[in-house]
Amino acid sequence: MRFIDEHRDRFGGVEPICRVLTAHDCQIAPSTYYAFKKRQTAPSARSRRDAELKELIREVFESNFRVYGARKVWHELNRQNHSVARCTVERLMRELGIASAVRGKRVITTLADASAERAPDLVDRDFVAAAPNRCWVADFTHVKTWSGVVYIAFVVDTFSRRIVGWSAAKTKETRLVLDAIDMALWQHDRDQLPYEKGALIHHSDAGSQYTSFALAEHLQQAGIAASIGSVGDAYDNALMESTIGLFKTELIKLGRPWRTLSQVELATAEWVDWYCHRRLYGEIGHIPPVEYELSYYREATKPQVTVTT
């Protein structure tokens, strides 16, 4: 093949050379030469497969706030029935130059009121709930905008990691955290999945907003037990800290600069919808929180079969 490549122009093309070589007991047909050249120039099966997977990987990455790493991209591709090895996803993501978002440092926003009466700690770091609406954890964070600081409060169900309520405001008054709770209550009424009064705990840190009389009264009227964690314990409300960390990493850091309260509110609404309905969460089996809850309710409402002998 190399000989033909070197002399084809001198001897009038491929066919004359093949005839001479064949006449001297070196049999080769022009079709053999052309087939070889086609194989040399055509992309391999692996190259074609890599190109297809790169498009799928890029689509998953772009449609999930550009924050997924190889593990979540791999799980999402398999959920879409694209069978691919995790190491292949890692290799192709390196070739594409894309990587997961990296979390920053935690910023403390809540300040304790030493004079306020605090509710007992009913959770004691046990954030594993047996069902939805058994334990909600709450906290808030802040975002710097051109028009001033915006505060965002969240309420998360520890069973599914679902954000059941949130609110945003320009001040961190008690109304901020009350609005987040009210959204959580409204959403459960809307979905016809009411909580059992007396069976739900609202857990938070000892910030003044969460030790206020207004919040205690609000929870009591709703039939929700108040719980306050220990002061100065970084692990006491770890699940809520993790959620806020994801919010800052996956949305706030990627959306700079932020201009107004309304811009932050709109972006937060979009992120929360994605987080609850589409984001894969490793601690619940790499499925979205809402899907995890629906699976629980389907199992809970299955008719019980009694076997008699």
**Separation, N- and C-terminal Cα atoms:** 80 Å
Low confidence ranges:
none
Roughly how many Å is the radius of gyration?
A: 30 Å
Give the count of helical stretches: 11
Q: Structural class of the secondary elements?
A: alpha/beta
Sheet of most strands:
5 strands, mixed
How much is the average pLDDT? Answer: 86
- Percent strand: 5-15%
How many beta strands in the DSSP annotation? 5
Encode the helix/strand succession as letters. HHHHHHEEEHEHEHHH
Give the strand line-up of the largest sheet. Answer: 3-2-1-4-5
Task: Walk me through this protein's architecture.
It is built from 11 helices and 5 strands, in the order ααααααβββαβαβααα. With 309 residues, the chain is of the alpha/beta class. It has a 5-stranded mixed sheet with strand order 3-2-1-4-5. Strand 4 (200-204), helix 8 and strand 5 (224-228) form a beta-alpha-beta unit. Helix 4 crosses helix 5, helix 4 (45-62) packs across helix 6 (86-96) and helix 5 (70-79) packs across helix 6. It starts with a helix and ends in a 9-residue tail after the last helix. The model has no long low-confidence stretch (mean pLDDT 86).
